[in-house]
Write a sequence for this structure.
């Protein structure tokens, strides 16, 4: 699965994006000259200074007004605190310059001199505060921060996309964003200009920023809406995570990590999973363990799991997977081998459906990630898998008329040796007649370290519906637009070799996935992988997908899931 956010959680994990509206329109007010006699060459011009306030359509004006008895003929002005003047023009009654680089709530002093036509010269000096001179109308909305690639994650460089619009009466110029978040210690670069040009009222522009996260810290800004009022009080509000839609199936995928627990540990595990607010549990019902010899079934191993799930109100999704030695192709000696005979697999599927239907199990998944050789040896074969799917589907439907069959959840792998990309694999399944032999398409939309909301070509979540082609578009093109995708695995590791991801990133993934799932009616189920870490050895990321650490303590993602589901 590809490796490359981001939950900004209100209180401890958010990035405060502080808006500074620069680029104001500084008003110019003209006074009528006083009726005095003509000045001699030694008479200096008298000067009054402009009141603050914008003049629509004129960018960044500073000006002075001549009150001498003759007109201005020359002059020079400068401004401090890093601002710059340009395009200065001497007019008969005033001196006008454009000003750039003004920071909000900063005081500036303009100094210089002016000369009138009689040769008299006067010094000029006045101060103003930008908060008095600028009338904000700029709005920054729909801002999100995320890592665009795994290398960006390792280097700590976030991408920030912001949609900016001008809601005021005038056009916006020379916009600058500065600020920091005390909770994450992330600083937006000081005086970082966004050259947006002129934005008409009601218009918008898109800007991208990059900034670095100090080593050892994390920060995610999922979606933030911030508006600048006339007082620019730095108000901001966060979009709350939407509760899952009614009928949305949220669960935990646990692989084969329940069967060996004691009765007490199994019960406490199921109780804790149910306490999170999820409604489903997905687990391996391994064929090689259920039917180690032909026709001899070991039901007790899995009866315990189903009974414990039922006891705590959890629905079960068993995965029919893993081939016993007697059912493997010649020369293939691993339980990960694809079955030699679909009919033998069908008999196992029918037996399982018949046995567990009276216990309330009616949802089944046919295999796990058949598009990669980690689960289908000697190499993935969409035609062979489709034959298995057809046989299993037919057998389960005959055994239980209430059943629902999900195709094997596809890994978001790329086309490499031993891997077939999921969109190519699904297309091949349809070409081999899979359409009428699955009630939903199984898929594993892993996207770490990018959040699901971020559209990226390698992201498993993006490949579900945001790209062309996508899992959804392939379904629609083959007449299956009425069926749903079940995301039977999704998650993020918190440790492992070469991996600088952390527990806050995992929590961000949970929150964002739930929020995205809430707005996708075609997504029928979302299963987080997994409940508990498999170990502490940092030699593999596979040990660290749990919501709970190996020692039983809870990660932030555990509380994020519970809070988002239960409020």
């Amino acid at each position: 699965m590809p490796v490359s956010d981001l939950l900004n959680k209100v209180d401890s994990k958010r990035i405060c994006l502080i808006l500074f509206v620069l680029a104001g329109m500084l008003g110019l007010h003209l006074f009528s000259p006083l009726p005095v006699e003509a000045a001699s060459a030694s008479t200096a011009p008298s000067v009054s200074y402009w009141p603050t306030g914008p003049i629509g359509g004129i960018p960044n004006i500073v000006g002075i007004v001549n009150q001498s008895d003759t007109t201005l003929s020359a002059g020079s002005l400068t401004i401090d605190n890093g601002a710059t003047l340009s395009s200065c023009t001497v007019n008969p009654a005033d001196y006008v310059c454009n000003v750039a680089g003004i920071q909000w709530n900063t005081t500036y002093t303009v100094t210089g001199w002016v000369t009138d036509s009689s040769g008299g010269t006067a010094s000029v000096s006045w101060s103003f505060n930008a908060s008095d001179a600028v009338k904000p109308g700029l709005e920054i909305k729909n801002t999100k921060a995320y890592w665009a690639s795994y290398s960006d994650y390792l280097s700590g460089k976030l991408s920030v996309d912001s949609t900016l619009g001008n809601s005021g009466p005038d056009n916006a110029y020379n916009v600058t964003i500065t600020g920091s978040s005390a909770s994450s210690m992330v600083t937006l670069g000081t005086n970082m200009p966004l050259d947006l040009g002129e934005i008409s009222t009601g218009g918008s522009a898109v800007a991208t920023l990059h900034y670095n996260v100090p080593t050892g810290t994390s920060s995610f800004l999922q979606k933030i809406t911030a508006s600048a009022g006339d007082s620019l009080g730095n108000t901001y509000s966060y979009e709350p995570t939407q509760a899952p839609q009614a009928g949305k199936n949220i669960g935990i995928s646990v692989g084969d990590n329940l069967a060996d627990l004691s009765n007490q540990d199994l019960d406490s595990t199921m109780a804790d999973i149910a306490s999170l607010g999820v409604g489903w549990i997905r687990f391996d019902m391994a064929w090689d363990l259920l039917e180690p010899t032909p026709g001899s079934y070991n039901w007790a191993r899995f009866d315990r799991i189903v009974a414990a799930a039922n006891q705590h109100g959890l629905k079960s999704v068993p995965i029919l997977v893993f081939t016993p030695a007697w059912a493997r192709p010649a020369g293939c000696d691993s339980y990960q081998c694809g079955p030699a005979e679909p009919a033998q697999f069908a008999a196992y599927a029918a037996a399982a459906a018949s046995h567990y239907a009276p216990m309330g199990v009616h949802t089944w998944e046919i295999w796990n990630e058949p598009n990669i050789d980690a689960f289908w040896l000697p190499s993935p074969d969409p035609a062979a898998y489709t034959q298995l799917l057809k046989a299993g589907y037919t057998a389960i439907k005959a055994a239980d008329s209430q059943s629902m069959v999900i195709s094997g959840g596809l890994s978001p792998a790329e086309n490499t040796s031993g891997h077939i990309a999921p969109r190519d694999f699904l297309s091949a399944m349809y070409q081999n007649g899979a359409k009428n032999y699955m009630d939903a398409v199984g898929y594993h939309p892993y996207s770490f370290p990018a959040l699901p909301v971020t559209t990226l070509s390698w992201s498993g979540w993006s490949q579900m519906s945001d790209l062309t082609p996508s899992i959804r578009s392939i379904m629609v093109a083959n007449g299956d637009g009425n069926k749903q995708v079940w995301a039977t695995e999704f998650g993020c590791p918190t440790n492992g070799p070469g991996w600088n991801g952390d527990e806050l990133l995992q929590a961000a993934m949970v929150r964002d996935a739930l929020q995205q799932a809430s707005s996708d009616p075609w997504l029928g189920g979302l299963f987080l992988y997994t409940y508990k870490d498999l170990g502490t050895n940092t030699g593999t990321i596979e040990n660290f997908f749990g919501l709970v650490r190996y020692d039983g303590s809870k990660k932030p993602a555990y509380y994020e899931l519970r809070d988002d589901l239960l409020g």
Remarks:
- Residues 136-238 form one domain.
